[in-house]
Each structure stands twice: as structure tokens, then as C-alpha cells.
From TrEMBL:
InterPro entries: FAD/NAD-bd_sf, Flavin_mOase, Flavin_mOase-like, FMO-like. Its cofactor is FAD. This is Flavin-containing monooxygenase. Keywords: FAD, Flavoprotein, Glycoprotein, Monooxygenase, NADP, Oxidoreductase. The keyword Flavoprotein applies. It is an enzyme of class 1 (oxidoreductase). Pfam families: FMO-like (PF00743). Its EC number is 1.-.-.-. The keyword Transmembrane helix does not apply. Belongs to the flavin monoamine oxidase family. FIG1 subfamily.
């Protein structure tokens, strides 16, 4: 019997959770209220209801060696401290490399997890 797991949010941690579930033989479904991955690192021009956002000028304050997924290092040509757009690019590369997007349901506003 395969066990189902609900993951809330397709940010950095949500994507890592999807991957970990798959490695353990679990069946993850990630519920994301927006229309894209990236969580707090995804900049949007207009504010979204109930979602914190970053400024368009935000750079990371940790070096890329400390911020990377352990099994997916940043490309060598990425700067050590990067603009949010580069980090978002990396997050998308990670999701694509491990084929994680197919486990995400986008634009989900209410999480009714009963009877799953």
C-alpha cells in the first residue's frame, strides 16, 4: 500500500519535501496557492493576498555553497551572492531536474485533506 503525503507550498522546502517523499516510496501531493514554484523567492509585481513577497532588488545574504540543495549544487557560473531572479532560476532547474512539478497542484486556496 502506497502512503499519500500532503505538502503545503512549493517553495524551497516544499520541493525538497516532494523529493524526499519520492525517495522514501511515498506518494506526495503538493498544494501551492500561487501559479508557480519558488515560494518567498518568487517576485511578483503586484502583491498577492496572504503572501509575503520580496523586493525586486533583493539579493541573497548567504553564499551559494550554503544555500544549495545538497544533491544539486548551483552552476559554477552563478554568482556567490545572487539576485532573487538567479535563485528562482536555480529553484526551477532543481524542480525540472528531479521532475517534481507533476506532483504540484497550483492555485489551491483551500486544503481539504480529509478522506485522502
Amino acid at each position: 500500500m502506497v502512503r499519500s503525503v500532503a505538502i503545503i507550498g512549493a517553495g524551497v522546502s516544499g520541493l525538497a519535501s516532494i523529493k524526499s517523499c519520492l525517495e522514501e516510496g511515498l506518494e506526495p501531493t503538493c498544494f501551492e496557492k500561487s501559479d508557480d514554484i519558488g515560494g518567498l523567492w518568487r517576485f511578483t509585481e503586484s502583491p498577492e493576498e496572504c503572501r509575503a513577497s520580496i523586493y525586486p532588488s533583493v539579493f541573497t545574504n548567504s553564499c551559494k555553497e550554503m544555500m544549495c540543495y545538497p544533491d544539486f549544487p548551483f552552476p559554477e557560473d552563478f554568482p556567490n551572492y545572487m539576485h532573487n531572479t538567479k535563485l528562482q532560476e536555480y529553484i526551477k532547474m532543481y524542480a525540472k531536474h528531479f521532475d517534481l512539478v507533476k506532483y504540484i497542484q497550483f492555485k489551491v486556496r483551500n486544503y481539504n485533506l480529509t478522506n485522502r
